[in-house]
Amino acid sequence: MRNIVIFGAPGSGKGTQSALLVEKYGFKHISTGDVLRAEIKNGTELGKTAQTFIDKGQLIPDSLMIDILAATYDGMQPCDGVIFDGFPRTIPQAEALKEMLAQRGTEVAGMLELAVPDEMLTERLINRGKTSGRADDNEETIKKRLAVYNEQTAPLIEWYEKEGKRHAVKGYGSLEEINAALCTVIDTF
Ligand code: ATP
Ligand code: MG
Q1: Residue 70 burial (CB count, 10 A)
Q2: How confident is the model at residue 73 (pLDDT cuts 50, 70, 90)?
Q3: What is the mean pLDDT of the chain?
Q4: Against a cut of 0.85, is the pTM above it?
């Protein structure tokens, strides 16, 4: 069972690359952003809470997010591997993931970092906003999300480096190129 964290800033291509990996390896995909957007769409209490944070470009509080993640993970069918997309986004989340997997007799195989320059991220997100229908893909919220990423999420790069699990790949170029770079790392897990 390979537990793979796909990591990167908003707009780094985590969702796009995850889909390609699911197709190639038959992994399951947990996207916390997708989970939250489904809750919002269904008008649940959780969705209402999540929306207030997402609209401001902020993160959902760790304790809530950690519970959602554990429930999603435990609700999955047994499979060959899982891709964690959008989680962890803070150091407490990374610690919680480590503990949660240890309790289940497993661990993170590796963290794949999609490295993309800041200017490219903003441009991609503004473009995505034209068709995504996502309320948070507007210029003002994008700015906040990138600031939150730099402040709260980027420190995870060093955290995973210290764990000996960080693998950075170039997150721009063609989709196939990026995918091939990710597969080269995954095949060593
Ligand atoms: P990408 O473009 O790479 O898919 P993203 O930042 O655009 O990344 P999502 O991962 O879909 O988007 O997340 C959307 C929003 O959901 C975040 O801005 C945040 O408010 C909330 N969210 C998602 N995952 C988490 C998490 N692990 N902890 C806290 N909040 C989260
Ligand atoms: Mg996404």
Answers
A1: 15
A2: very high
A3: 96
A4: yes
Helix spans in 109-174 (H): 118-132, 139-148, 155-163
What residues does each domain of the chain span? 2-181
**What strands, in cross-sheet order, belong to the sheet with 2-7?**
28-31, 81-85, 2-7, 108-115, 166-170
Q: What is the pLDDT of residues 148-160, one digit of tens each?
A: 999 999 999 999 9
- Domain range 2-181, CATH architecture: 3-Layer(aba) Sandwich (3.40)
User: Are the C-beta atoms of residues 80 and 25 closer than 8 Å to each other?
Assistant: yes
Catalytic residue check, 145: yes
Q: Is 89 a catalytic residue?
A: yes
Residue 37, ligand 1, Cβ within 6 A: no
Q: For residue 65, which atom of ligand 1 is closest to its CA?
A: 28
pLDDT band at 1 (very low <50, low <70, confident <90, very high): confident
- Evaluate whether 57 touches 51 at the Cβ level (below 8 Å): no
Cβ within 8 Å of residue 20, ≥6 positions away: 175, 179
How crowded is residue 61: how many other Cβ atoms within 10 Å of its Cβ? Answer: 12
Q: Which ligand is nearest to the CA of 56?
A: 1
pLDDT at 78: 82
